[in-house]
Amino acid sequence: MTDQDHDLIEEARKLFAGPIAFLKSAPDLKFLPDMAVNEVAFAGRSNVGKSSLLNALTNRNGLARTSNTPGRTQELNFFDVGDPLRFRLVDMPGYGYAKAPKDMVKKWRFLVNDYLRGRAVLKRTLVLIDSRHGIKDVDVDMLDMLDGAAVSYRIVLTKADKIKASELAKITALTADAIRKRPAAHPDIIATSSEKGMGIPVLRAAVLESVTQG
Predict the structure, then answer these.
(1) I need a surface site. Which of 88, 169, 179, 205 has the fewest CB within 10 A?
(2) How far apart are CA 207 and CA 44, in angstroms?
(3) Residues with Cβ < 8 Å from 50, sequence gap 6 or more?
(4) Structure pTM?
């Protein structure tokens, strides 16, 4: 790790230890906030641990609500980071919930696709993949959507503490191979654990880097 990497991790740590506040929910594009600052979105299959990861990332237990009912959140939730405002985090509705009504799935696809294609300030989407299962068909649909919208994205493995180190290395390699030829995919994968704090400092730095570059 270079000195520059250390500096970025420390800057990100301080930033995420500062003011972070829920801004609004947007069930429809007309409710989106003004494009005042850059945004980083979080996408993931229902039950992938997205809310827990957002809470770990921000050092706040209740920033993103966790639910035992998959598919509960069907809105884009925006969070302001920094005072003065530096950037926004966007919690996208979970996908792939088998029992979700078809009209809800259709609404989700329209909302997410329109947001991805029309949001000039969206700098990167972090796609969360359960490290115990790897990329599933529903994840492939999301990656295809991101590639089609030409939105830069990066894979974040969740629940990495639930499997052995050898299995994690294997799933990381398989995931890297699966995204190698995808045009909008960042080649580096971050393995995380919300419970153990594994990979959280690196994830914070990756978020900060994505909103400050270019």
Answers:
(1) 169
(2) 16
(3) 42, 43, 44, 64, 91, 94, 128, 158
(4) 0.94
